[in-house]
Amino acid sequence: MDINDVFKRTSEASKRLVTLDGQEICHVLKDTAQALREHSVEVLSANRYDLERMNPSNPKYDRLKLTERRLSDIASDMENVAMLPSPLNKVLSETIRPNGMVIKKVTVPFGVIGVVYEARPNVTFDVFSLCLRSGNACILKGGSDAEHSNLALVHIIHSVLKSHDIEPEICTLLPSGREATARLLEARKWVDLIIPRGSGSLINFVREHSKVPVIETGAGICHTYFDKAGDKEKGREIVNNAKTRRVSVCNALDCLIIHQDRLSDLPYICGKLTDNHVIIYADNPSYMALSGHYPKELLLPATEKSFGTEFLDYKMSIRTVSSLDDAMEHIARYGSKHSESIISEDKESIRRFLRQVDAACVYANASTAFTDGAQFGFGAEIGISTQKLHARGPMALPELTTYKYVIEGNGQIRI
Questions:
Q1: Number of H helices, E strands in the chain
Q2: What value does the mean pLDDT take over residues 56-76?
Q3: Do 156 and 167 contact (CB within 8 A), yes or no?
Q4: CB atoms within 10 A of CB 330
Q5: What is the pLDDT of residue 1?
Q6: CA separation, residue 388 to residues 154, 215, 286, 391 (Å)
Q7: What whole-number percentage of the chain has pLDDT above 90?
């Protein structure tokens, strides 16, 4: 494979992609979703081959695993994206200059978006659907762990594209080796944007080595603060959901922060975590509060490494604080600016938390598990951006566009 030729063909195909009718794009997405349902047996077979090569205790295992339910959800997300309005050709602003020129700021695609990701085959369909709906071609660089799963999914995509007489090069899957990643990060002649999805080490590697502009989708070190005025019934349900709904995703709870005046409620708040054998790394006050009330084999003293860690597992830490300010200070020190939540019935505490905590998504009395493009009504997402330039939070269709200025005149010249 001449990889530069691959990049060139994708770039050329992207220029023709913008000429497609929006309705045709919707039909392609719906047909692709239906094709996934019809070929689920082949996809699951390819996925099983990948799973057999990975230790089930690996935190990536759950991300790699596909099921009938997950495939159905992926197909539904694609159909949701098809139903969303196009983000293209929207006039963001319009001014008429004194000389009569009309200047419009109009949304346009980036062109070619490269996405580097690990053992997450669902990303393949999410990226394709969002890129196609926003008029972008995509270059996919999945990890070797999901090689067979990604090949099966891209085969479905290419089959549908060909049936619509659309160039399959608008969705290109690169070889799973590291060399392809390095070449992609240097392909600024053909690629307009790189988005990494995965571990902190992957994101750091892409940021440090890419010559193409990067939008980071950062690691999720997520906290929930149970305030002095927190409702313990809400707290019990929110903490359990945020931690155990799906531990391998970036919006899962990593650290529970609790006000010292509510330590007596801690056994109740953590009570449902035992159903999933969640290991707790507790600081001294919370350890004493849980001793004798939480399974001994699941309760361990916290160390400094227990905080600022994205566990991606049935594990979490607990920090005791004496005030809201202490809680926010802990989040500022150990958080990754992803998703943070407060459980409180005090309006002033909620107001301060939502205003002062620096994160892409801040919650009051709700689980951080909702940080997800589909849950926000975006159809799907290409990642959760934790940076502040261009995009922040779940990145969906609007975030996959840039803009250009369109100037209409009638013979004006500059003196």
A1: 14, 16
A2: 92
A3: no
A4: 19
A5: 64
A6: 32, 9, 35, 6
A7: 87
Query: 368 near 316, Cβ under 8 Å?
Result: no
Yes or no: say if 71 and 40 are a contact pair by the CB < 8 Å rule.
Answer: yes
3-state secondary structure of 281: strand
* Cα of 25 vs its chain's centroid, Å: 23
Enumerate the β-bridge partners of residue 299: 280
Return the bridge partners of 408, or none.
102
Residue 192: the pLDDT is 97
Cβ atoms of 187 and 154 within 8 Å: the answer is no
Torsion of CA 149, 196, 238, 76, to 10 degrees: -50
Token pair of 69, please? 């339910």
Bridge partners of 103, per DSSP, are: 95, 407
Which amino acid, 93?
S
What is the rounded CA–CA span in Å between residue 89 and residue 19? 12
What's the gap between Cα 67 and its chain centre? 20
Contact 185, 194 (CB under 8 A): yes
Q: Taking the complete model, does pTM exceed 0.90, yes or no?
A: no
Token pair, residue 208, equals: 């440090």
* Token pair in block for residue 13: 């195909």
DSSP-derived 3-state class of residue 373: coil
Cα–Cα distance measured from residue 171 to residue 280, given in angstroms and rounded to the nearest whole number: 43
Q: Tell me the pLDDT tens digit for each residue of 212-267.
A: 999 988 778 999 999 999 999 999 999 999 999 999 888 999 999 999 999 999 99
Dist CA 224 CA 230 (whole Å)? 11
* Residue pointed to by tokens 């929110």: 238
Question: CA-based angle 132:136:142, to the nearest 5?
Answer: 80
339-343 vs 171-173, strand pairing mode:
unpaired
Q: Which residues contact 52 (CB under 8 A, 6 or more apart)?
A: none
- CA atoms in the 13 A half-sphere facing the CB of 405: 8
Q: Label residues 211-236 b or e (16+ Cβ within 10 Å = b).
A: ebebbbbbbbbbbbbbbbbbbeebbb
Coil, strand or helix: which one is 308?
coil
- Rounded Cα distance between 71 and 184, Å, is 28
For the record, the structure tokens of 400 come out as 């996959």
Whole-angstrom distance, CA of residue 34 vs CA of residue 78? 10
- Which residues lie below 8 Å from residue 326, measured CB to CB, with a gap of 6+? none
